[in-house]
Amino acid sequence: MNMAEKQLLSFQVDEQFDLFLLLKGADVKTAKNGKQFIRMTFEDPSGELSGNFWDATDQDIATFEPGKVVLVRGKKELYQGNSQLKIMNLRLANTSEPNDPSQYVAHGPMTRAEMEESVSNIIFEITEPTWNRVVRTLLQRHADDFYNFPAAKKNHHAFAGGLAYHTISIVRLAKTVADLHPNIDRSLLYSGALLHDLGKTIELSGPISTTYTLAGNLIGHIVLIDEEIVNVCQELHFDPESEEMLLLRHMILAHHGLLEYGSPVRPHLLEAEVLHDLDELDASIQMMSTAVEHTEPGDFSERIFGLDGRNFYRPTASKTNQSEDD
Amino acid sequence: MNMAEKQLLSFQVDEQFDLFLLLKGADVKTAKNGKQFIRMTFEDPSGELSGNFWDATDQDIATFEPGKVVLVRGKKELYQGNSQLKIMNLRLANTSEPNDPSQYVAHGPMTRAEMEESVSNIIFEITEPTWNRVVRTLLQRHADDFYNFPAAKKNHHAFAGGLAYHTISIVRLAKTVADLHPNIDRSLLYSGALLHDLGKTIELSGPISTTYTLAGNLIGHIVLIDEEIVNVCQELHFDPESEEMLLLRHMILAHHGLLEYGSPVRPHLLEAEVLHDLDELDASIQMMSTAVEHTEPGDFSERIFGLDGRNFYRPTASKTNQSEDD
Amino acid sequence: MNMAEKQLLSFQVDEQFDLFLLLKGADVKTAKNGKQFIRMTFEDPSGELSGNFWDATDQDIATFEPGKVVLVRGKKELYQGNSQLKIMNLRLANTSEPNDPSQYVAHGPMTRAEMEESVSNIIFEITEPTWNRVVRTLLQRHADDFYNFPAAKKNHHAFAGGLAYHTISIVRLAKTVADLHPNIDRSLLYSGALLHDLGKTIELSGPISTTYTLAGNLIGHIVLIDEEIVNVCQELHFDPESEEMLLLRHMILAHHGLLEYGSPVRPHLLEAEVLHDLDELDASIQMMSTAVEHTEPGDFSERIFGLDGRNFYRPTASKTNQSEDD
Amino acid sequence: MNMAEKQLLSFQVDEQFDLFLLLKGADVKTAKNGKQFIRMTFEDPSGELSGNFWDATDQDIATFEPGKVVLVRGKKELYQGNSQLKIMNLRLANTSEPNDPSQYVAHGPMTRAEMEESVSNIIFEITEPTWNRVVRTLLQRHADDFYNFPAAKKNHHAFAGGLAYHTISIVRLAKTVADLHPNIDRSLLYSGALLHDLGKTIELSGPISTTYTLAGNLIGHIVLIDEEIVNVCQELHFDPESEEMLLLRHMILAHHGLLEYGSPVRPHLLEAEVLHDLDELDASIQMMSTAVEHTEPGDFSERIFGLDGRNFYRPTASKTNQSEDD
Amino acid sequence: MNMAEKQLLSFQVDEQFDLFLLLKGADVKTAKNGKQFIRMTFEDPSGELSGNFWDATDQDIATFEPGKVVLVRGKKELYQGNSQLKIMNLRLANTSEPNDPSQYVAHGPMTRAEMEESVSNIIFEITEPTWNRVVRTLLQRHADDFYNFPAAKKNHHAFAGGLAYHTISIVRLAKTVADLHPNIDRSLLYSGALLHDLGKTIELSGPISTTYTLAGNLIGHIVLIDEEIVNVCQELHFDPESEEMLLLRHMILAHHGLLEYGSPVRPHLLEAEVLHDLDELDASIQMMSTAVEHTEPGDFSERIFGLDGRNFYRPTASKTNQSEDD
Amino acid sequence: MNMAEKQLLSFQVDEQFDLFLLLKGADVKTAKNGKQFIRMTFEDPSGELSGNFWDATDQDIATFEPGKVVLVRGKKELYQGNSQLKIMNLRLANTSEPNDPSQYVAHGPMTRAEMEESVSNIIFEITEPTWNRVVRTLLQRHADDFYNFPAAKKNHHAFAGGLAYHTISIVRLAKTVADLHPNIDRSLLYSGALLHDLGKTIELSGPISTTYTLAGNLIGHIVLIDEEIVNVCQELHFDPESEEMLLLRHMILAHHGLLEYGSPVRPHLLEAEVLHDLDELDASIQMMSTAVEHTEPGDFSERIFGLDGRNFYRPTASKTNQSEDD
């Protein structure tokens, strides 16, 4: 068995493997028989897979902490049409073995350098000067987190760099929308898109074993970044009550679309409604794509919490590929 | 006063005019004082404007029927920040005057020829052969209506050709989405987009004084076009229970997204969810754009029924234009 | 122990038995300790009872498939006031033993012959000729399934022939309603009642181990039968846009009453509202009756999912019987 | 014009008449021009029709009080597909003219004597002795009101005797249901049906110009009759905490089905759920029938508040009559 | 008629008067007959009363602007059990007449000096030093507005100084609650109470003819004051991410209780839930008291929008007074 | 180990103890591995703590019945931030050991004598004579239960005497409210407060192992006490339809505030709305306080069902204590 040749998501069902993997998550749970088990999530650059480590001792719990590289003997198995990892053997990687966690993190389709260039180009198109400076200042201040954080704790774009990638995807859609509808203010839409989720760098603890911070729980990412905009205004001597700044803050505050989803105000600007719609669209596609990828052709995926518990069908023949081939 | 020089929406508030206009709608209402008035909507290629014709006699009601060209003396006035037409004098155009209704209908930004070419190009990209034939057959059968009907009775794309224009706009957005997400089946998404609202040609009475037909009221456009797909299958000897046909029908049936909005089934295909999202996005933008256009800078628009009664702010300085100029 | 004497639901709590039973359902589940168990449902003509088969091996799972006749040693026990089957021993019936599944299926109170005669009489009362032919054609085409399918996967009338029996019960109620209200169109109400759930023969897989078909999941039984009506119109050269056919299709499409329950249009005909109400009434009574039957006098039944999770009280003394005896 | 020959609802649209009618309702409203008008409802045994009396003086308001017989010159006119009365002239009937209000009240299809006999027969079938005595006592105590009150202020069965007629209709349906489902306790279902709305005799002011009493507003008819049941128990020395009395009170308390509709507890008895369903069914049919009767064939009725604002279609050809003739 | 002797709310129904009053509100509306009228609200220290000025000319609209003192001849009349002002004559007060608007504004039961002392005492009880300084700084900065603004545009405490009075009332209730529950952090609860609605000084335009500012419409008072807290932290060199500041900001952000009511986060602190409950309680009582005061004994008040459209009964005998007398 | 020295809630995490405790609750559950366990709740005057007794035999289930005194060897452990009891050994107390259950029941902060005096003082302030007599009669009739029952099965004030303590707390808040708002009828508010939950003495089975009675399930505590008021009227020869009695009954019937929460009518009296608000406020505080007490500083409590599943943060430093000390 040549370990280097295949990655986690390339194995077939029931094909056994020994792999070094990052232990991304490890939730201790108590079974109804009183014994503990650990719900583990493993990751390598090909993606992630979860499985249960049964009858865990206190020693196991202390040993298998998220963020460690582990050597796993196991196989992919199907559970109600969806794939999970059956753990057959597990130990920590020792110092003579590959054990650098950063080598096992799944990334999005773009490198950080590519994303930075893309963001730089977008900022160039923000021609309104005060928005341009506010956006530039805040992205600079949070740059490392912006390019490393996931876009959400688990629902969508839950990979390293997912926050920046999700942001760039929205701007790409926004360009097409603005091309079709010249009455849209591109500067405002792009500024809002770049900042809309930046508060997640304060709301979330980081890219590994992501949890909510106290600020995240008590304030929430929407208001956290809005407050920073106002602070930047103070630093740059911009009037926070100017129409420009009210418009920009409204873009961020309204981007969840509905009060029920945590926006303190609903969108009352064309651009704010568009930002909300594109944010939802991109998140939905990412959630559905991930779910369908983990599903066998001809089956329904597991139910997606973030899409009202719906499951999605994976057709038996991939029409796309056919048409691509033609 | 040179009538030919300016069109309906080009006049300033309180600037009086004499214009030949199409009487697009004429709803007779009874005021609480027992007298009748007519809520009239006037149209020319620049757009439409509504106003009340007070103290209407039975003779007036019989004379001023929708679809007639009329000569209006009036002016634009503001009512709670929104513009309406104050009718000062009104009579039918006589036979020696311009009186061809088709010259006064507002159209979308594309001509029929342009739209036909655009649709033809889209169909070319549907590489799955059975979907291609079903789409081609149904669009051919309803071609005249498809290129002349509005997309809705009044909420959005309520202009001649709005149905086809709305359809094409969705496909344009769909292309960008598919470029960003190669796992999307373009053939399926485009087929669904082209057919999704075609049932409106049966649900609605036509482009002028649009009402619902009995079939529209009792069946609804979603099921009406779904039934036609099944009938076309019978004609073309395609199995309606094949996976391909189930997928296509699901695209149409699910495109309202929620059961509460009249879809008998929620989207359970990635492409169906995307179609629903793009449909809403395009309709929302069109509704907001129309409302904001009728609003003075620095004011809020009237409340939009189709967007939960929200009103939208028109910023004082058009940022878009600035950035366009740069 | 004489096996022939008593049937499944006739035993007292804690009274041990050996019985040949049909294994109606067998859902494999994983307990939180990682071991598998099978949630089994057993059936004989007296009704059905469920119980868990613990610590199931892969061999057990392969052996105990739904549709097989098994020999069960067990007893009825109470779990939170409701009865379940404690499995003490279990094996497949061998070839020398009774093993014909059809002998163990629970049926409704009418035989197929009785139901066929009843349906035939109802059709006779449909005096509108086009409805009569559409109904006759469709019932003939799906006759075997119509008289063998359950009315639902599990909620109500989940016995063989339940679909036809549920349909006939609705018509009986409909007659009383029409007697009380002569303005009701009997032909329309009976036609709608006969066809309203016929789409379930396409939506569901069959009477044993019932699941949803792909057509059921992506289209749903309401639209599936509506499409067939339109196809039959094509065959019989009836105009599907005639008022008669629109009325009939509306009866079917609206019978779930609310958009949230999957009807693409709400009832806008007196007869459609009545059909919806009677459908709900009959399903509710069947669900409540089954739940109360499985409950001891003086206890509350288990909660019924299809009735908002309510439980129902079984009075200590059966008043009905007293009054019947008098 | 021979007044005696035709009644209110027999006239064609635009056919002028002079009729003595009961002024059933007279709501004074202020038009937006500051002038008052009276929304009048006229009634004779054929039914009722409403119309506006414009520009009413204080004198008019004092004169035209509900309960008076008036001489009306007017005609039936259509307003948005529904009929209303255009008032051309109006004065009080004088002492030498027919002016007995009781001659002009619309009644249901049964006389009081018929209803009394029917109720008497139902009570005979209540074989549980304590329920029988409670029902008998309460119906006797409220007999005059029970046979004269409407079933609701305006939504349904809003005619004299409507309360008793609605009650009897429910019992007729209940009999069919009990015939189909022998596990239903007839005594309980009939007892609940007979008492369920009896509290309306306390909640409402009476059959003419019906308003809510203070007890109706602050307590509501459901609790008002429940309290009387408990009081009757005290008088008859029945234990109100006996299971029999708890069951009976539950029937009444739960009959609105949902907490949102004012029942303090949801149905937790099979018979209570059935009573609720039949109550809704009978009320719905009565509302729809009245609305459709006031609608021209081929039109939709006005929207019915009590049925979620839905309107109902009246088919062009009355199928019922055809089939009746056959 | 001696003007000085009686104030607006002291007159009986139908008792005519000539009074100088402040024109507090003047909304121009168009009646359905096309004519304009002005919905006017008049005020003096005894309270306010509304009435319609019919058939208003453009001249009238220009003249009667909110904020002017006017001389009114009129009388109080009842409209559906509630009192309104019938305007018989109206003109502006001239320069030789009393025309100082500030003399006609209704105030709450406390003077500004009393309120300032009360607030000062509350601040003294905030023993946590950083909260004390933030509260002190912000109240000082907005002092004039805090003691002059109403608490809401119209629903409750809509009098000058209502904002401060509402705030003080909440703290009084808070003291009793904290006395009963010693685990409550008084410093936190009082700090939150003092700041919770301070953002209304930015959200609203001022005490007369109150409208929403652009900041109010696009950001909302909850976030507006939260942003100021963060800015004050910057000035005072407090860490805005310290637990103390997160707790304080959470108190403000969560005080509407539900996301649907505009809080971006629900209360997750005992003190935040209590603040929300007391805020609602005090606002409800103020709304109900005002409505009941305008109602005759034995009648129901008009429906209160802010309390789900409920109306409230005013008992015939004021029990309170009796018991007070005893 | 000296048992007498410390009580249940005084032990630190992981500090082992042997204690006599009351077994307050014992719910038998089946683990997914088919074995039974008992979810036990232990109580002494310091409060209560729950823990699981794994692998329970039928003998264990028969032995460990709620209401028994047991000797427990165990320790407090943390489970997801909340404390629970780990059971290491368990047996019934024998006859020579302390085994009087009443010595182990947790009580509220007031003794019965204190509560009786407090209630007596409140009744003294009810100056309306008929309310005074009704309240006095009903409290006397249910006195033992009123001072011994909990206020709810488990959500709040679930300790012996909780019902009376909750009632008294509401009246204390009511006094402050009435002091601030002199238009409130104190007699009515106090009468309603004293009776509002008295029906729980009929709805619930008693203070130990509390369940719902059949009357509780089928009628509910709101209507149960309302019926008793009407019966007391009969005994005292008060007219139940007098305004006074309607007001009092309305106070009780409306006190859940919303129909969805089981009130058959919403509050339509100022005092009824205040009673509802104070009832909710007091219950919320009690629930939050209990949850926070069981939480470590710096953690979030477990989610509270009765507060929409929210969890509450316990700050790291108890601000209250600091300010109390100053």
TrEMBL record, chains A, B, C, D, E, F:
GO biological process, one term: rRNA 3'-end processing
Short name of one Pfam family: HD
Positions in coiled-coil regions: none
PROSITE patterns: HD (PS51831)
Taxonomic path: Bacteria, Bacillati, Bacillota, Bacilli, Lactobacillales
Keywords associated with the record: Exonuclease, Hydrolase, Nuclease
HD domain boundaries: 166-284
Tree of life domain: Bacteria
Gene Ontology molecular function, alphabetical: exonuclease activity; nucleic acid binding
Full protein name: HD domain-containing protein
Entry keyword annotation includes Hydrolase: yes
